[in-house]
Amino acid sequence: MTGLSKAFIHERDQKIYAARAAGASPIDIAKKFDVSVPTVNTAIRRHISQLNRTAVMDYPEVLAMELDRLDKLQRAIWPLTQHRVIELEGGETIQVEPDMKAVDQALRIMQARAKLMGLDVERIQLHTSTDTEPPVPVLAGSEPTPTYADSPENEAKELIRLSMEAGILGEAEGKALLEAGEIVDAEVVDDE
């Protein structure tokens, strides 16, 4: 078999990807290009990888361009969001209140900017509690949740309690299981 050039493979990958994106099945694509189905799947993965690499390389430029557009929009409407004085034709001046539609637009622009920059994401701080053994991650400022993994019996009892709260187990069945005796390997064992 003769080697295929990179340019040929690249062009074929694009055509295979386009056919798949248009809804053709891998089997139909394989027949059309006289290749195997695994070759079709490999070509699609290769093309998607190339698209992802290009997107990663282009992201900073696209982000800068979008932020610049938002800045220009905001600068254009910002004066309308302020109290201002307008001079009429006869030299008379009037006080104008902020345009609430412009204020709404400015807020939307600010939200779009925050979203683009990732500022709209809620930040969660975790720390490791040293009060429990083994240490468990907890939300900053909150109390550690007790761990029931210290014994299979405690874990099973907690699962029974949670099942009762969720309505999976009825109150009577749950209490009966909890009061039945020792739980060994998640089975209730009679005390007698």
What labels would you give this structure?
two-stranded antiparallel ribbon; 2 domains; 6 helices
Shape: flat
The total strand number stands at 6
Helix content: 55-70%
Order the strands across the largest sheet as they lie in space. 1-2
Beta strand %: 5-15%
The separation of the N and C termini measures: 78 Å
How many helices does DSSP assign? 6
Short recap of the structure:
With 192 residues, the chain is α+β, with helices and mostly antiparallel strands. The chain has 6 helices and 6 strands.
Question: How would you characterize the overall build of this protein?
Answer:
With 192 residues, the protein is an alpha+beta fold. The protein folds into two domains: 6-117, no CATH class; 127-187, no CATH class. It is built from six helices and six strands; from the N terminus they run H-H-H-E-E-H-E-E-H-H-E-E. It has a two-stranded antiparallel sheet with strand order 1-2. It has a two-stranded antiparallel sheet with strand order 3-4. The protein has a two-stranded antiparallel sheet with strand order 5-6. The termini are far apart.
